[in-house]
Amino acid sequence: MEITTNDKKMFSRQSSSFRLRSPSLNALRLHRIFDLFDENSDGLITVEELSQALSRLGLDADISELKPTVESFIKPDETGLRFEDFAALHKTLDESFFGGDCECDGSPESDLEEAFKVFDQDGDGFISAVELQNVLKKLGLPEAGEIEQVEKMIVSVDSNHDGRVDFFEFKNMMQTVLVRSS
């Protein structure tokens, strides 16, 4: 598959956090992303579903530019990307736009730092309830609906009780989540 200049423009606004750099977590992360993008839970992501998901994340892509790239990964007689196709598309985009290389050291710590930066939208070193709610909304998650519910999420990991999550608290929470899911 050839990546055109238009394809590169379409993804040029994305941050380095788009890349999934920890090999041990790639499949899990990609499955979660796939499930989020698969609006009707039919096991397929259509071009329209992918376009809508990218828009929710602030990566507005022209569907006419997105369509040929995505369709080149859809198997004959299918109406969308199965997980394997989605993973192949992700790998190709990673190699085309990032050289398949990571600018960081690939350690779990640096992955967590990148993830933290996605949530810490104002860069002050803390995740507030409003920042968490904004990210949850962009992902289309129902938990974003009421600020009170989001504040409870913050309180559940806020070990120093300052009403926000610092990197240490975020790291502890993520390690707990990853240990439970393994």
From TrEMBL:
Q: Which CDD domains match?
A: EFh
Q: Which InterPro entries match?
A: EF-hand-dom_pair, EF_Hand_1_Ca_BS, EF_hand_dom, EF_hand_pair_protein_CML-like
- According to the record, the segments passing through the membrane are none
Top-level taxonomic group: Eukaryota
Q: What PROSITE patterns does the record tag this protein with?
A: EF_HAND_1 (PS00018), EF_HAND_2 (PS50222)
What molecular function terms (GO) are annotated for this protein?
A: calcium ion binding
What keywords does the record list, in alphabetical order? Calcium, Metal-binding, Repeat
Domain EF-hand residue range list: 25-60, 107-142, 145-180
Keyword presence, Transmembrane: no
Q: What is this protein called?
A: EF-hand domain-containing protein
Keyword field contains Magnesium: no
